[in-house]
């Protein structure tokens, strides 16, 4: 059984480590942070730490096995609630940019430009990142994370948006009602923009 709840105040690094491990071999992430890059794991950790801190704490979900404390899954959402960045987010973003270096920062900017045309009209939720620890693959962690947040989104009657970076993740998202809206070329080769209508089943 998988338990899902909002991230705790002292769990940012643990949640970011889960994403770092989950995206170690991701094809799109390899274009953003080269596999042969020096200190690649530290760069990915900084990137995911920044993503977590830029989100509202109530929009970051973590998953654990029932009866265990270890975080085995993380999902970072951007909600339509808006508002300014949480405390510490700006510093985390600057730190991430410094650790990533100019090449990766430019690649991230190109990624954002490629994704922008596919985003639905507000209000919508954006799944920024979702990942499962390699040791917990196949236990239904990803499904638990998605089901938890999409239940909340359906209560608000709002749309959701994400980018699938592999065929496996695309199939998972399709099982939750997401539909493909276009392939992302260039730096995002292999990724697909996907949308989910309000209360899609």
Automatic annotation (TrEMBL):
Protein name, please?
A: GNAT family N-acetyltransferase
Gene Ontology terms for molecular function = acyltransferase activity
**Keywords for this protein:** Acyltransferase, Transferase
Q: Which Gene3D superfamilies does the UniProt record give? A: 3.40.630.30
Q: Is Acyltransferase set as a keyword in this record?
A: yes
The N-acetyltransferase domain sits at 118-199
Q: Which domain of life is it from?
A: Bacteria
Source organism (scientific name) = Nocardiopsis mangrovi
Q: Which PROSITE patterns does the record associate with it?
A: GNAT (PS51186)
What Pfam families does its record include?
Acetyltransf_1
Q: What is its EC number?
A: 2.3.1.-
Question: InterPro entries from the entry?
Answer: Acyl_CoA_acyltransferase, GNAT_dom, Trichothecene_AcTrans
EC class of this enzyme? transferase
């Amino acid at each position: 059984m998988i338990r899902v709840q909002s991230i705790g105040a002292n769990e940012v690094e643990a949640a970011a480590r889960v994403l770092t491990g989950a995206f170690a071999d991701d094809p799109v992430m390899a274009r953003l942070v080269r596999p042969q890059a020096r200190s690649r794991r530290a760069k990915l950790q900084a990137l995911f730490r920044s993503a977590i801190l830029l989100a509202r704490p109530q929009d970051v979900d973590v998953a654990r096995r029932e009866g265990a404390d270890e975080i085995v899954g993380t999902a970072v959402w951007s909600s339509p609630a808006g508002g300014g960045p949480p405390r510490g987010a700006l510093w985390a973003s600057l730190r991430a940019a410094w650790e990533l270096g100019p090449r990766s920062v430019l690649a991230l900017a190109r990624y954002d430009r490629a994704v922008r045309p596919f985003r639905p009209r507000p209000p919508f939720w954006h799944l920024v990142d979702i990942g499962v620890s390699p040791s917990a693959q196949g236990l239904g962690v990803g499904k638990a994370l998605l089901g938890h947040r999409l239940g909340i989104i359906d209560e608000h009657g709002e749309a959701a948006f994400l980018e699938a970076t592999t065929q496996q993740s695309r199939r998972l998202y399709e099982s939750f009602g997401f539909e493909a809206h276009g392939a992302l070329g260039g730096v995002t080769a292999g990724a697909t923009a996907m949308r989910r209508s309000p209360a899609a089943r």
